[in-house]
Amino acid sequence: MNFLAHSFLSFSDGQIVGQFLEDYIRNKDRFSFPKDIQNGITMHRAIDTFTDSHPAIHEAKKVFSPLVRLYSGAFVDVSMDYFLANDLTVNSLKGWKSHSQNVYKVLNQHLYLFPENFKIMLSRMESEDWLYNYRSDKNIGFSMKNVLNKAKYLEKDIPVFEAFSENKKFLKECYDNFFQELYLHAKQTNDLMTQF
Known about the structure:
Layout: H1 3-8, H2 13-21, H3 35-53, H4 55-68, H5 72-85, H6 93-109, H7 116-127, H8 130-133, H9 137-150, H10 160-166, H11 168-176, H12 179-194
């Protein structure tokens, strides 16, 4: 999953930090953080493992894999954030705004834990309010362009956003068949981590 889902599936401020930190640390270093941040790192991994093995995600990847092959998962992650941002059964528009502002605040309070490239990205994320604005086609198109630009072995003009737009109904069905199960898995993971 992408930034919005990882932040939404955090059950404390420390878990938000850990979920974002996971991409920047070595496995052996995870135990050097407070327990709550360690739980966020564990949660990030549990979410990714569950997502990668889910049948609905395998179906969603078929939209992008003819264009981007092994990178299809990255574009599915961005797509799922779009549908989550538009899912008012899990949060209202006001709630999403409040959620995004809290995530930026928490991450800024813990910037000392992150490398310089994350600090630069967070500044842009906050100023452009990526988390809240994932709801718009324009911003999802921008996010997909970002993924293309970062990918070493992909041409930069592959029509991934067009594939997203043409298959939006199918991708929404994949989201509907997936996200509630992911939420329940994250909640169970949290309950197990925090009972000790």
